[in-house]
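Exercise: predict the fold of this chain.
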Amino acid sequence: MNLAYDQVVNQLVWYLLPFFRVAAFIMAAPIFSTGMVPMKIRLIVAVAIAVAIFPGLTPSADIDPLSLDMVLLIIEQILIGVALGFAMQFIFAAVVNGGQLIGMQMGLGFAQMMDPQTGVNVPVVSQFYNIIAVLLFLSLNGHLVLLQILGESFTLLPVDGAGLSLAGIEAMVFFSSWIFSGALIMVLPAVVSLLMINVVMGVITRATPQMNIFSVGFSLTITAGFVVIMLTLSTALPQLAMLFNEGFMFMRDMLSG
């Protein structure tokens, strides 16, 4: 079977365009983009996913690989992949913010360690909640749902289509508010409990100024904080699962415009 040069080039182009979307998604999505995953592994995963997705695509007209249209299509695929990945990153950012709220209330805001997900320093309490979120995300097969949505994106937003709509981009901007509202929803019982403890210590200090409540208050708030985290963790997990579900629904809504 003889293949013309134009046919070979067109096939390569239609392999490359899905690869750019998949690679951008892998670099931006949670779990896949963590610093613990080597760059070579991410590249191999991106190539494997692109090869698996390609048979379901229908190549259209020939595209000159050296034309401006090719450059614009590459940029479009990268933007779609990054948008899909960052949508779920907002939920994990809400988890980090929720842990920071608790850490500040219990006096552990200064204790920080590096987060392997983002590569920056976050409070220890945030790291604890982040690990719980990752384990829950994997147990709910969230990584498989992400790959499923990525596959659906090639049907809803074809490679040679118009790309993300303005309404989808605007919705993503509004969805970023879940970084703060989602954090408050997840840790509200713990934050309220620690706030009440701080109020009680403030009242005791006001009633008996001669008592140096701060000499024991620091260790008391830390101990009470760990107890509150233990008691409220069972209520935080369903809220966290709800946040993941909101993220998945938003990703599909963003693709459909």
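Check your answer against the key: The first helix runs from residue 5 to 28.
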